[in-house]
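Researcher: I'm comparing several assemblies side by side, and this is the next one on my list. It has 242 residues spread over two chains. Same procedure as the others: predict the full complex and return the structure.
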Amino acid sequence: MSIDSRLDATFAALADPTRRAILARLSTGVATVNEIAEPFAMTQPAISKHLKVLERAGLISRDRDAQRRPSRLEPKRLAEASEWLDQYREFWEASFARLDAVLEELKRPKQVSRRRKKDTK
Amino acid sequence: MSIDSRLDATFAALADPTRRAILARLSTGVATVNEIAEPFAMTQPAISKHLKVLERAGLISRDRDAQRRPSRLEPKRLAEASEWLDQYREFWEASFARLDAVLEELKRPKQVSRRRKKDTK
């Protein structure tokens, strides 16, 4: 599978609040379908469908042998998605820095602003 | 829009190689639809559709006044997605560390392995 296909599958799998909540649940440890389904107002087949999407995207693995097929978080594809996003880090850091500068300027007492204006003459 | 709806829209918008390539193009500067469409084997209406998805997700903004409506990268939602992924960082770092340890063990000369075994007796 190419990096592009993997990112397609990862981001598509993450575009759902239930699937994101399932990953959060699995970050506390392996769990069976029943254990995963418990906090959700969802049937077990509905949860199973979400698990299939997550498994196909490589975000979880499931034990083939054990009877209740516990699911386990697989973090590799999350790392890949994070790495892809990281190339835009300089953009958001620059934009947050600009916002901070504006807020700082708004907080500054008027008098100080006037003094700064004189200084720059 | 709730954080969950924003993450849904962001991840869904990112689950497409053309849209990811458009964001990469816009990271080099603002661009019109024609400029964005140029490197793709796609019609301008097809590119416009992708721009609409990116705009609705808040990943780009488009100039309403200028005639050619240049698009601009908006990094805030990418930062939010990155922050969400970051909560799993300890998992992938631990799993990469385990892999490194296994590779290190495989690289170790046999003699040293034997000596280590004796040491632990």
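Model: For your comparison table: Chain B touches chain A at residues 4, 7-12, 14-17, 20, 23-24, 27, 73, 75-76, 78-79, 81-82, 84-89, 91-92, 95-96 (CB under 8 Å).
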